[in-house]
Write a structure and sequence with these properties.
single chain, about 30% helix, Glutamine Phosphoribosylpyrophosphate, subunit 1, domain 1, five-stranded antiparallel beta sheet, four-stranded antiparallel beta sheet, 13 strands, alpha+beta
Length: about 190
Amino acid sequence: MTCIVGLKRGGVVYIGGDSAGVAGLDLTVRQDGKVFQSGPFLFGFTSSFRMGQLLRYSFTPPKHHPDMDTMAYMVGPFVDGVRACLKAGGFAKQDNQVETAGTFLVAYQDRLFCIHGDYQVGEAEDPFDAIGCGDAYAKGAMWATLSTTGEPHDIDPEKAIYTALLCAERHSAGVRSPFYVLSTKKGGSA
């Protein structure tokens, strides 16, 4: 299920997502969004609505000490806090002593990170990323908006994300509108 797309542009990070809730061949268009803001963090999740609910309503990000590198913070205290939240909420799974959860994008300090099911923290070289069953279609659509310099054309960032989500909806049975896009823009909607 799902397509979540993130884009960094001009010091702002945008994350958009669809509204599909999928179980096998059953589809429910959900009102509870997959993209939300929590303090200085912008989240977009796939894998499970339960995981998203825990991140949205139960997760309190740990303090980021100013002398700590942002990646070190994300890999250490941030992920440790996510793990504790998901365990307490009964979502984290353990198999053969390996703990796993779900996948989500998170924007923090003008950067776009992907937290994978094994809790690794990824940061794409491209100014965009996508997750969910429609990710390949969305990444292709986002790449098509790039110029030869690797920077997006003059297309509006929200429009680029909507286009990527439309492409994913057209080609993936697990992606469905309506689509929602939020940004880290100061004073903007989030």
